[in-house]
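Subject: FCD domain-containing protein

B.,
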Amino acid sequence: MSTTERPKKTALLVAQRIVDDIHRRGNQIGDRLPPEKAMLEDYNVGRGTLRESLRFLELQGVITLKPGPSGGPIVQRPDSSAIATSLSLLLQFQQAPFETVVETRAALEPRMARLAAERMPADEIAALFAIIDLEQQNLEDENGFLTQTRRFHNSIAEGSGNFIFAALFTALSDILDGSSVGVQYPSRQRELTVDIHTSIATAISDHDPDRAEELMNTHMTALTTYTEKHYAKALAAPVKWRM
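Prediction pasted inline below.
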């Protein structure tokens, strides 16, 4: 260990052991972990250290702590919210603007579309076209439309078959959704979005990775140009940490 590297706190080491044991036992979502007395004996730590470990795992979305006599730690499935929280905290301390999040998304999405064209199963492709139908139905409802466009892009991220891409993309979307950028898309912009989404979905359905990547790159370039033109000041604002 280098002179600048600090040893991990006991509570974090215990948290790692708890996660290892969850996988070793084959615990499923909703399973209750052993009672506190058994965990104190298993991990040979004090009550304060164990509770700190459990609180850390709760913050990471690994467990939920159910109160009451029949409660205790319940296994959960972590999601992107922990990544978004940690990433937004890091970005705030770096005084990074929202523009960096937009740039990162624009770099990721064409590659994800390419992978989706290679890997996305038929049922998920059908769901992608169903989302586009909902976009069309919500053209006059901006909030409803934006909800469906996020579903569209999330579906492609998941359809890439790359869990890291999907988790990172969702975290970036969470940061942008929690921002004060306030980007609005007029009706003409929403119509153009439906058109390009339809073309992207068609390329994915045709299993044409080159075309899917090209179209997504065009889509991201257009979105970046639009936001830079109309919301340059907002994009230059620093990311702020949120819980």
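The CA atoms of residues 77 and 191 lie 36 Å apart.

T.
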